[in-house]
Amino acid sequence: MLDRYEITSVKARQVLDSRGNPTVECEIRTRGGGFGRAIVPSGKSTGKHEAVELRDGGLDWNGKGVSKAVKNVNDVIAPKIVGTDCRNQEALDYTLIALDGTPNKAKLGANAVLSVSLANAVAAASTKDTPLYYHLNALFGKPEMTLPVPFFNILNGGEHAGNKLAIQEFMIAPIGAKTFSEALKMGAEVYHELRNILIERYGRGAVNVGDEGGFAPPLKKTRDALDVIMEAIHRQGYESEIRLSIDVAASTFWTGKYYKIDGKRMKSERLLKFYTDLIEEYPIINIEDPFHEEDFDSFAMLTERVGKDVQITGDDLFVTNPRRIEQGIVKKSANAILLKLNQIGTLTEAFQAARLAYDNDWYVMVSHRSGDTEDPFIADLAVAISCGEIKAGAPARGERTAKYNRLLRIEEETEFSYAGKRWVLK
Ligand code: PGA
Ligand code: ZN
């Protein structure tokens, strides 16, 4: 029976991501007629400890070409995996890890490695003629599947926008919706209401969008952003259904001595107080990266203080890396991880990160990158590991809606329930 599942070809090429930068796309074919394609995304506010994205340097593509990574797939990886069984994802990923041989995928490039790892999973599902989420769920081994709560990033700041807001992402989470499609409707309605309010107050220049499709108005302070979002939620009548979430991405405004936010310089104790005040004033259910990427201790203090009611999520802190998550578990630095496949470079290692989180009663939020593509893989992933939460940007722009629209299709073809109930409505 190997024949059907035998990988017959592996081919990578350079394509563009949503920022117009080159990225790696890989296609895998199997003897049974299966076909898998995957495109790797790319971050901007990247964590220092992320796996290495191999870029060509030089003058072409402003140094961002990925022809070396593409060549690594076609010349180094392909000959080793053609002829193997696509169903054995772990064996394939360990082959990739061994071929690279570095702790951070620096030799072949995490972009090269991940494109193959994901395309293989898609090819295996295709050969089995089963939906990708079923195949991923079987590999991951969780009994149930659910449709995740979408965390829509409707207002952008930090490195994703040209305004003065220090905080990178202001998200709305329709936890009180009954279904995923209702959540999507609520998110889109509030997004458009926010657009109307921003035009009324600041003119049309205020509704240009940031990298993840959220508006990037000329606001300066955190509370200004939260207030205008609350107003949009109020005008649409969703106060009881929608809660707020922020990705602070604090490393981006940490100077090495203090945090520069809202026109102030704050040490970590003051920033911690800033967060506890915000939590009192606004219905915030999740704070991602509240402190810089090495500050396990301040993370732990905030988690101790508010972690019963608020999800504290480590992104740049953990970089989807089981070793760093283990440190965080020992120090009680958070109660959730952000899961980004390209931070670690293989599906198997991302599964290990998620399992580690679950085994310690932590939550997992599946995430896109600010430079993303039309590839909807993470929608199936979030369903398959039943994590109940996904962030994929605004409910606008093709690379973001690719994920949300895929979830609509999964909702239509399955009986999976919407994961909103896991959040306590207060
Ligand atoms: P990035 O941003 O993709 O630019 O890293 C997303 C995030 O910080 O969560
Ligand atoms: Zn983040």
Which architecture of the largest domain does the CATH hierarchy give at level 2? Alpha-Beta Barrel
Arithmetic mean of pLDDT: 97
Q: What percent of residues adopt helix (DSSP H or I)?
A: 40-55%
Look at the helices and sheets and give the structural class.
Answer: alpha/beta
Number of domains: 2
CATH topology of the largest domain: TIM Barrel
Rg value: 21 Å
Q: Determine the strand fraction and express it as a percent band.
A: 15-25%
Order of helices and strands: HEEEHHHHEEEHHEEEHEHEHEHHEHEHE
How many helices? 14
Strand order of the largest sheet: 5-6-7-10-11-12-13-14
**CATH H-level homologous superfamily name of the largest domain:** Enolase-like C-terminal domain
**Highest CATH level, the class of the largest domain:** Alpha Beta
